[in-house]
Amino acid sequence: MTGGIRARIFATASKRHKENQMVRGRGLVILTFAAVVTFACGGGGGGGTASKGTIKIGSDLPVCTTGGQSTANGIKFAVDQKNAAGGVNGYTISYQSFDDCRQAAYSADAGVENVQTMLGDTKFLGMIGPYNSAVAKAEIPVAAPQHFVMISPSNTGVCLTKESPPPQAPCTYHAADLRNGNANNYWRVVTTDDFQGPAMADYFYKTLNIHSVGILDDSTVFGVGISGSFEVEFKKLGGTTKHSEYQKATTSDWKSILLNFKNAGALGVYVGGTDDQNICIPRKQMKDLGWDVPFGGGDGIETTDCIDQASGNELGVSATSAGADATQVPGAKSTIDAFRKQFTGANDFGGYTMQAYDAANALMAAIGRAINDANGSTPTREQVRAEMAKTKGFVGVIGTYDFDANGDTSLKIVSIYSVQSVSDPAQSTGVCGKAQAKLCFVWKTQFDFAKA
Amino acid sequence: MVDFGFYIICGAAVVLLATQAVSNPTAFVQITVFGLADGAMYALVALGYTMVYGIIELINFAHGDVFTLGGYISAAILGFFAINEGSFTAVNLIAIVLVFPVVMLIMGGINITIERVAYRPLRNAPRLAPLITAIGMSFVLEGIMFLWHGPATVHFPDILPHGPQFQTTIGGVFVTFKDGFVMVTAVVLVTLLAIFINRTKLGKAMRATAQDRDAAQLMGININRTIAATFFIGALLAGAGGMIWGLYFNNLFYNLGFRTGLVAFTSAVFGGIGNIPGAAIGGVLIGLIAAYSDSYIGSKWTEVVIFGILIGVLVLRPTGLLGMRVPEK
């Protein structure tokens, strides 16, 4: 009767949620919607001597959020450094930040408008962004015919660059269609969501030495896919699994399912799903059952709501996140310290600031080579795109990047975060609980699938 | 003839469960404990459906949301007490004892208002009309809860005794204080209801109204007041059910009532809609069936099993387990 309508509401909400969490500025994203204003303005940098002129690069980020603003800061920092060192082959780089927020949240329509503004000014030779995968999906078809370089610091949606490998759900749109016959103009410096399931499988099997797990999925496209990719990897390693699923609309008590896992000899639980499907309530019920084993999932549980749902049993919840945590990269420390001297605000540094810094430097390096191709004069967008595609062994602070023909990075790093009690939540790189404000996701380790 | 098929299916189910019980008795009893606790809560909600149906033949779709709202309101009131979630204190006990009746009365008042606004004006309209307003009220209540706390899960304070000292293992079966609390409270409430319906004047008036409204009116029974009382009592149980649910699971969300309401309504039909003991037994059975199905068949099949059994019961025994209370005309 009303089931149809509600099923649709559930489906829409779940889809929206998935898009939201493809990217997550880790830092203090909880404050995201509270902080409204903030404004990154362009204004290139000072510095260069006897400049041949100005080349503009833009960014398209949700700067109304702390995640978006801290990412824009990374670009500004890279551009300021470059101009202070004399610019790029005699050109001064001018950076302009565009905001794709509408009503305090990212909007694909706003992103497309921003890209069109940049395309309308011939001085723009490339952009950093977008922040959210759903925005990239809308922008690539607009930018590709103009050979306009886009480098995202944070998109993890698989289908932007390649097909989604089984057992994950097939892509509902395709990378080739987005580019519509044009040469690839889109790159990203973080890896893709399809490595999340395998990363937690490795963490359980190799690091925690757990060889038998119960797997629970929430019957959504995302949940079934990520738990399936976990299961494939875990079995490949030699582990045994027991798989169950539930639907939010019909399940409130998971204890029978959990007991079944326990009786089957499981020593850990992996959940494929998102907090809006109540995926972390089973964590609380494990305690009601007196069953204390590790609990892991994808970035859909690296959230404040998940910590709240697990109420009373928060410790021991682990989650994956596609991408490296810059604060854990030894070589990044000096750059981060220099950044903090220029940007002193508490929220100025975020989970994707250093990724944006690397992306901006990779773009400026390609522009520099394109200037040489144009015999020292201003290159065309196609020349910049062609040079970006040739990027090999680019040394950034996160690591050394190669890019494949699809635009994906060779750095396939997935980070693992676990809930721990921290003394100062403001210093945490992961999100914290609302009721339990001192229980936060803390970086544990990372897996590099390029080496695997 | 028809009942023969019904008994065959019941017998087969019992045999299948018995084989599981023999092969792993500990797990079987453990699952039964979970099922009884869940079923006790479904029973409290199912009673409201069955009472309203019995008296005015309306499927009150808003009832599940009255139950959820009871949970939301009790969480809000508990916020005024200096409760302690870490361990059980005297304040917790006082808070629980005080908030239970308060929430029940508030929900009773809300449900009387709903009846007055959305159902009474349509009492003589075609039966579809109040059904539609019931669905409308359901959306209104969910909308209120959505605006109040948003779409995320709402935490309900964990103030019942819990932790290692409040759980025990009997022959390998793990039983917590909460499990016992839920079952005992439900049994007490259902017993009070039964006494009320069978022993008091108002209960007699409700039974008379359910049997024949016009004749009851001729006998001097105030129909409007009797129907309002039915809604009031149904909501008392739903309000208590919402609070018990919160105390047990410590989680609520705004559209919980849709799901719980559907299961509770199924329980009422299962037991024989309009039949008060039937609804209580139906609720407990549905809780047990869901728990057994989750463990023995697979959670993806649980809904199929529950509603398959419902279809089977309706086809083979249309009056439900204990028989439907239909107006004799």
Distance between the termini of chain A: 51 Å
Oligomer: heterodimer
Domain count of chain A, please report it. Answer: 2
How much helix, percentage-wise, in residues of chain A? Answer: 25-40%
Explain how this protein is built.
The complex is a heterodimer of chains A (452) and B (329). Chain A has helices at 3-21, 66-84, 108-119, 133-143, 175-179, 196-207, 221-236, 255-263, 281-288, 304-309, 333-342, 353-373, 381-389; strands at 53-61, 91-99, 101-102, 105-106, 124-128, 149-152, 186-188, 212-217, 240-245, 269-272, 295-297, 317-322, 394-395, 400-401, 413-421, 439-448. Chain A is of the alpha/beta class. Chain A has 2 domains: 35-191 and 332-401, Rossmann fold (3-Layer(aba) Sandwich); 194-325 and 414-448, Rossmann fold (3-Layer(aba) Sandwich). The model of chain A is unreliable at 1-49 (pLDDT under 50). Chain B has 329 residues and is mostly helical. Chain B has one domain (2-316): ABC transporter involved in vitamin B12 uptake, BtuC (Orthogonal Bundle). Chain B has helices spanning 2-23, 25-56, 63-78, 90-119, 128-149, 177-199, 201-211, 213-218, 223-249, 256-271, 276-297, 302-316; strands at 154-155, 167-170, 173-176, 251-252. Chain B has a two-stranded antiparallel ribbon with strand order 1-4. In chain B, strands 2-3 form a two-stranded antiparallel sheet. In chain B, a hairpin with a 2-residue loop joins strand 2 and strand 3 (173-176). The mean pLDDT of chain B is 90.
Topology:
The complex is a heterodimer of chains A (452) and B (329).
Chain A lengths: L2 H19 L31 E9 L4 H19 L6 E9 L1 E2 L2 E2 L1 H12 L4 E5 L4 H11 L5 E4 L22 H5 L6 E3 L7 H12 L4 E6 L3 H16 L3 E6 L9 H9 L5 E4 L8 H8 L6 E3 L6 H6 L7 E6 L10 H10 L10 H21 L7 H9 L4 E2 L4 E2 L11 E9 L17 E10 L4
Parallel strand pairs in A: 1-2, 1-5, 5-6, 6-7, 8-9, 8-10, 10-11, 11-12
Antiparallel strand pairs in A: 3-4, 12-15, 13-14, 15-16
Chain B lengths: L1 H22 L1 H32 L6 H16 L11 H30 L8 H22 L4 E2 L11 E4 L2 E4 H23 L1 H11 L1 H6 L4 H27 L1 E2 L3 H16 L4 H22 L4 H15 L13
Antiparallel strand pairs in B: 1-4, 2-3
Helix pairs in contact in B: 1-2, 2-6, 2-9, 2-10, 2-11, 3-4, 3-5, 3-9, 3-10, 4-9, 6-7, 6-9, 7-9, 10-11, 11-12
